[in-house]
Specification:
Length: 379
């Protein structure tokens, strides 16, 4: 195989591939990517870990058709340090790959393309959502996906598309994230998507103004964005009944400024016990007092204004779960913020709804269609 490609174009596609390809694997070939010619002006790049696969196509000048299989990380490290010129690739009969860019020359050990796993057949893509909307869905749910590998059915998010409504739900058993939007799409899908696939799809969606096309077969779900295809195994099993978790009789409501709360929680959390990570809300008429204490380190407290006119109540929270639940960015007005910047940036109002100190607590912005449910801690 022999082809020439622009360094900048190749670098961009290899960046997408890195998150899927296994850096260290018990199956050595999974640390490699497959590069094959599609036509005389395009090549295809494929990477997989067997559960998740990415396939990208990019412009290139193909002089001799063929296929090469080369170590993914090493190739990426080389390409990203080259100058923005054309990169020339040529394979030898013994699977070695030579590349040249300007005055730089490299020779990489490849492996036989016959050992590379077969990619699932491309499935029809009958459904579409905007990339911006799908990225927004993931942003407001992925944080609630469990980190425990043993809880298989909770290690992804549930996507439901039916009756012109799209929903995404995630939970780890201690909290739940839910988002719903009316859409123009009339198709139907109900699938559990692994977190890794969501992460990789987000990377592409964030740089796209087009649509995400969906398709599925009995074992896989397919996402196509700007000509890039991600194929993921579905999660099998029964997802919890999320509708039972969302409180229906949460008649007590507190309203407060979201940024004021985030800042106060982050400050008070500095003195929270590192083992239980708990802070306490003392909710009173017109205010919330946020406090924490660690037996060997000290304590902290801060009061913020709030709209509340009911009985006094105290509720405990895991402060890390709480910060995740305090997301407020709307789809129309997403902003990038620095995690180390604790300066208020908006006047967004957040609602906290609950029935009592022992039941589920629901956080939801006024006028938005996503919510977080958090189980309280004993205080």
């Amino acid at each position: 195989m022999k082809f020439t490609i622009n360094q900048k174009l190749l670098k961009k596609e290899l960046e997408y591939v890195q998150g899927i390809v296994e850096k260290k694997s018990t199956i050595p070939v999974l640390s490699n990517i497959l590069i094959e010619s599609v036509s005389n002006d395009r090549i295809r790049i494929i990477g997989t870990d067997l559960d998740c696969t990415i396939r990208c196509e990019v412009e290139a000048s193909v002089e001799t058709e063929g296929v090469i299989c080369v170590q993914s990380r090493k190739l990426f490290d080389i390409i990203r340090l080259l100058s923005e010129q054309d990169v020339h690739f040529e394979s030898d009969d013994n699977d070695w790959v030579k590349l040249k860019c300007g005055k730089s020359k490299f020779k990489l050990a490849g492996v036989s393309s016959d050992t590379f796993p077969e990619v699932p057949n491309f499935s029809k893509m009958p459904l579409k959502l905007s990339a911006k909307l799908f990225s927004y869905f993931i942003q407001h749910t992925a944080y609630a996906i469990t980190q425990e590998q043993s809880r298989f059915t909770l290690s992804g998010a549930k996507l439901i598309l039916a009756s012109n409504v799209a929903k995404m739900i995630a939970t780890d058993g201690h909290r739940l994230a839910y988002i719903e939007k009316a859409v123009d799409e009339t198709g139907n899908i109900d699938v559990l998507i692994p977190k890794k696939a969501l992460t990789e799809v987000t990377k592409i969606c964030q740089n796209s103004d087009s649509d995400v096309s969906f398709g599925e077969d009995p074992n896989h779900i397919y996402f196509e964005i700007d000509g890039r295809l991600i194929i993921s195994r579905k999660l099998n099993g029964t997802f919890p009944n999320y509708e039972m978790v969302i409180p229906k009789s949460a008649d007590k409501v507190v309203k407060f400024n979201a940024d004021d709360m985030k800042i106060a929680v982050r400050r008070v959390a500095l003195m929270a016990d590192e083992r239980v990570q708990s802070i306490k809300f003392a909710i009173r008429k017109g205010e919330i007092e946020i406090s924490s204490q660690a037996a060997e380190e000290g304590e902290a407290a801060e009061i913020i204004k709030a709209e509340y006119d009911d009985e006094d109540i105290s509720i405990g929270f895991n402060w890390k779960y709480l910060l995740d639940a305090l997301q407020t960015d709307s789809l129309e007005e997403e902003t990038e913020t620095d995690d180390d910047d604790i300066t208020p940036t908006s006047n967004e109002t957040l609602c906290l709804s609950f029935k009592d100190a022992n039941g589920q607590v629901m956080f939801h912005p006024e006028g938005n269609d996503f919510l977080s449910v958090v189980m309280p801690l004993r205080v």
